[in-house]
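Hey L., structure's done. Input below.
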Amino acid sequence: MGTVHARSLDPLPMQGPDLGVQADDVDMVEVEPESKQEVLENKDVVVQRVHIDGLGRTKEDILGYEIAEVFAAKNLIDVMKKSHEARAKLLRLGIFRQVEVLIDTSQGNDALPNGLDVTFEVTELRRMTGSYNTMVGNNEGSMVLGIKLPNFLGRAEKLTFQFSYGTKETSYGLSLFKPQPGNFDRNFSVNLYKVTGQFPWSSLRETDRGVSTEFNFPVWKSNHTLKWEGVWRELACLARTASFAIREESGHSLKSSLSHAMVIDTRNSAILPRKGALLKINQELAGYSGGDVSFLKEDFEIQLNRRLFWDSVLSASLWGGVLMPIGDNPASIADRFYLGGPTSVRGFSMYSIGPQSEGVPGDYLGGEAYWAGGVHLYTPLPFRPGRGGFGDLFRTHFFLNAGNLCNLNYGDGPRAHLQKLAECIRWSYGVGIVLRLGNIARLELNYCVPMGVQSGDRICDGVQFGAGIRFL
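Output:
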C-alpha cells in the first residue's frame, strides 16, 4: 500500500551496544527490610522524600514530572506500585541505561513514624553512542549505521544521524527529537534527509532531498501526528528500456505538503496479533504551502483480530485510498498508490497490479484509487506453542486476498468510481507459514493461487516469499 517510497526518513530503532534500555532489562523494585516494614504494610504511610542519585547532565526539573505520583501513595503496596511505574517512565525517556529503586523508612529528626524515603539510583547513557543493525522493510533488507546523542541538552532530547544501505534504497538523515516534559507521548521532531530508491517494476529511480517537522500527541485512546514536509524530488529512468511514459515523468519537482494521521491500536502485537483492532486514517494536502505539486490524498487501514478455539486466530484487514489531483496537472507517479506482492495481494508480483505503460513488458504506473482486503486463519498446528521453543515463533495461516487499483475520472461521480473499483478484481488464496522476528518484522513462505488475473498482471503462481513489517 502507499507510494513507491517512504515519504520521509523516519527515526529507525537504534539497537546495539549501549543504545537503549527496556523496562524488562532491569530488576524489579527492591524493598529494604526494616523493623517497621511489617507494621507499615497494613497502615497508611507518607512518602516524605524522593531522591534521584547518579545524575550528571540531566536536569532535575524534567524528572519531577515522572516521579510525582510516588508522593500520592497511601500504603506500602501502593508505594511499590507507583515507584515501579515511575521507574518505567524514567526508562522510557531513553536517557538512562539502568534505574534501580530502593524504599526505606525515613530517618532523621523530622522523620514521621509512618514515613518512607524512595531513592532512584540511575545510570545515564554516554553522551554519544553508536549502533549497527539490520532492518527488514516490505520485501527488502538494509543495513543501518547510526550515531546518537541522547539527552544532549539535559531534558531527554535526542539527536540522531543514521545511514541506511539496502537492496533497493539508500538513505541518510539527521533528526532531532524533543518530548514535552511530563508527557513523553507529546513530542516534536525535525528531520533532514536524503533518500535514493530504485523501483524496477516502474523502471524508475527516485532521489528525495527534504526536511520535515512532526508533532505527535495523544487524544483519548488515539494517537495523532501533524506533519509538514518539503522535498525536492528527482525522477530518472532506471534502464534504457524504460517506457515513454516513465521518460515523461522524469525530471525535478518540489512538493510541500501538510498531513494528519490518526491511529487507534488495541492489538497485543503489531507483527502477529492474537486480539485487538487497528484503525489508521491519513490525509495529505500538497500545494497550498508551496511547491509545484498539488493533490489531496486520503487512505485508511482497518484490521480486526479475534482469538478462536485451539489457540487459532481469525484476522480480517481492509485497506483503501484515493488521490485527487488539484489543478490541471495529473498526479505524479511518485504520489500514486501501488498494489500487489507478498505483503498485499499475494500471488502477484511486487506492485504489478493496475495501469501500465504500452509495450512488452510495460512499466507499472500506479493508480489514483485502490482497495484491498484479506482474511486469515492463523493456527499453531503443526507447531507446539507455549513450550518455550520455535513453536512460539511459527504460525500456519490460510488466507484469501482481493483488491483492485485503477485511475478515476473525477467528473463521473461517486457511483461510477465505485463501479470501476469493483471491476476486474484480482484475488488469490493459499496457505503458508509465518515466522515472527521479535516485534520488528515477520517472514512468510506461502503457496499462492492467483485468480482474476488481468492482461499485463505479473503473477507468482506457487511458492512466494515475503518479508516486512506491514501485511494485508
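The CA atoms of residues 133 and 366 lie 32 Å apart. Helices lie at 37-40, 60-67, 76-92, 244-249, 414-422.

-- N.
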